[in-house]
Design a protein that fits this description.
By secondary structure, the chain is of the alpha+beta class.
Length: 159
């Protein structure tokens, strides 16, 4: 049951944990696209821009979404595009596994913060890999992988 005592964790979840999960996810896309020689732009949030750090743009509603856009891959092959689309979820999974390892070896404490981080990461992985198009016609990572394999095309931006 959700009570008043849950409100502080609610704010931690939506204004700290979820943006971190989003940043890790987008970092997977960015680092993999750079590995294949791509030019990258990525964003955390929506609305007016708060600030830019290199190719990262942070928006006022930083807790709502994220996206990554790449172009001009040096290794412009189907498997490179598939790798880029899957890398966001892979990075989320790697962080979950590392975090669980550190908790079991007692390097990190078993706290609600880390539980919630893993929960939101799994949520992110599921909806990222679930193949669908949003109302604007932009594909999820799963749909983008399908499109690249089936039609040989890459969609931008990726979420």
């Amino acid at each position: 049951m959700f009570t008043l005592s849950d409100i502080p964790m609610f704010f931690v979840n939506f204004f700290l944990i979820l943006p971190i999960v989003t940043l890790v996810h987008e970092a997977g896309h960015v680092l993999t696209a750079r590995l294949f020689g791509g030019k990258i732009k990525f964003c955390i949030g929506t609305g007016d821009t708060l600030f830019n750090i290199g190719s990262l743009e942070v928006k006022k509603k930083y807790f709502m979404e994220g996206w990554c856009q790449y172009e001009s891959l040096t290794y412009n092959k189907t498997w490179a595009h598939v790798s880029i689309y899957l890398a966001g979820s892979l990075f989320n999974l790697i962080v979950i596994l590392l975090m669980n390892y550190f908790i079991t070896t007692e390097i990190l404490p078993a706290t609600l913060f880390f539980y919630q981080y893993a929960y939101f990461s799994i949520y992110f992985i599921f909806f990222s890999l679930f193949p669908y198009r949003n109302d604007d016609g932009k594909p999820s990572d799963g749909m983008a992988v399908y499109d690249v394999i089936r039609y040989g095309k890459a969609e931008d931006p990726i979420d």
